[in-house]
Design brief:
Chain lengths: 530, 128
Amino acid sequence: MPSSADVLIIGAGPTGAVAAKRFAQAGMRVVVLEQGDWPDYSKARADHLDFELTMGCHWSGNPNRRKAACDYPIEDSDSDISAVLYNAVGGGTVIYAAHWQRNMPSDFRVRTLDGIGDDWPLTYDDLQPYYERVEEDFGVSGLGGDPAFPPGKGPPLPPAPLAPMGRRVAKAHNQLGWHWWPGPNAIATRPYRALNPCQQRATCMWGCVEGAKGSVDRTHWPENVRHGVQLVTGARVQKLETNGNGLVTGAAYIDRTGTKHFQKADVTVLGANGIGTPRLLLLSGLANSSGLVGRRLMMHPFGTVVGMFEEDLGSTHGLWGQHIHSLQFYETDTARGFVRGAKWGLQPTGGPLSMTRAYPWGADNGIWGPNFHSDVRKRLGHSAMWGIIAEDLPEGENRIVLDPKLKDSDGIPAPKVIYRMSDNSKRLLEFHLARARESLQAAGAYQTVTAPLIRETGWHLLGTSKMGTDPATSVVDPWGKCHDVPNLFIYDGSIWPTSSGMNPTATIAAMALWCAEHLVKNRREQKTPL
Amino acid sequence: MNIPLFDAIADLLIPAASDMPSASRAAVGTTGLAEVLKFRPELKAILEAVLAQCEGKSAQDALKSLDGDSRGILAEIVASAYFMNAEVRARLHYHGQSAKAIVPETIDPALLQPVLERGAIYRETKST
């Protein structure tokens, strides 16, 4: 490992993976510190008897439940939603559903169009080439020409099958005059680079045994390491250090044996997600002259509607993943009583044990007792689920702070999540759940079940280090550079001014490339401490 | 562990139906529970604590007396044991999350046509 790196990246999730690749291509010496290890796919049990029993253990996205050695606890008693993340090489992509959604053009112009929130300091047009490039690397499957997005290059792989559920709902939406389109997924539908084709086990979030999901531990990191990137696992960063000129000199970290290290670097990039990044900035006392570090947390309230059908849809299997998506009600219509919207993804429902659980059947799931068998049969293979990602707006009181008592296993203060759903979010979710019921009923569902808000669904951690042009009202500039610290950069979802209503990995990846490209091009002017 | 009580409660949660065995007939209290605890050993102490709350009560009273979390974990253990039973899986025609290769599918253009005919649904924005 070099004693001093050109670039130090903290976090080996999608942000770090995309940025490291670009920096390595430019010949820069890159060191990456990741507190987790490589994912252990020997613990992926999709093809074993105990899959449904054990899926929520090693592969749980809730660190408070998973309690791996590399995890830090999260205090969430003052939050309506529990944060979900994964500390490993690959980060959140190890457990994501791989719904690959670009943001829509309006997502970059929320203040201009809807008079609320903020505009991004870039547009969809600016980001479109970067979307196209990262989609090649992630092995995205889907169908170009979706009229929910501006024209352009489509995904590199053909779409997954619509499946019986998708065909039914597509026909219904055609009758309703509603949008639908084959679902874009970072899931390989044929052999592609390091990825094998999907086998439709519907287990994407709990250890993909096929190696079909475009998680960056497969799509990026092996290649990054081959190209000279130094990836250090089991490295928990304590603090960023600065010199007398206010420049970051590197990061102090603790390895798994408890030994302390210091990694020097010219430039430091944070890709530690919307909780880990503000936690580290607050621990380091950096980049917060605006007072916005940790604030404006957005987590995408998530609800589901399940429809039950007479037809056997084969919905124990499929992509988890989405077979189709709908953006019919994504754009603002103020007549609905709220602003902004949500994206819907149509998914299978899994095996028999999953038919008994609160997700997606609701907390008051009354399946037990005399009707148990008939209810299981009604659900198993005969149900399809709309998962609804609701856009929430940036609010200062929704935030990450350092908990005064809780600490991780190295004694470092843990983050606390303070998050309450706004009235706008509540009205938005209620409206979308009602429309999703109508969708499934039109598709022939004889019964629908609604789970209005599922607590452990805080997969999307956004907004806690806002991007903008004004140092008084933002933490970083449009290319992720901290206004206060000119050699400290943030590339992850923390920098989003607004959250969109989309699964965010596509935009997180495109933004990481956008930011990294800018740093590469301007590196001769970059201030460094060494 | 009070297995007879566990079985009795399990049968309230999963009774017999015409073509499906009850929980106890599917051996949830014996081989089923052993299988669950083999994969999830941490559940043993939790289950023992739940059953300790039920001691001296009828199965019905015990089930009613449990709080939501205790009842939830008990139900999860019972259902896990039940659905790992080979006979139960066969009767449900469920063979696990088995592999099902993707067959390339050409999407019927007639299905896509109405979506395309309605045109763009995104709002135009000014470029930079």
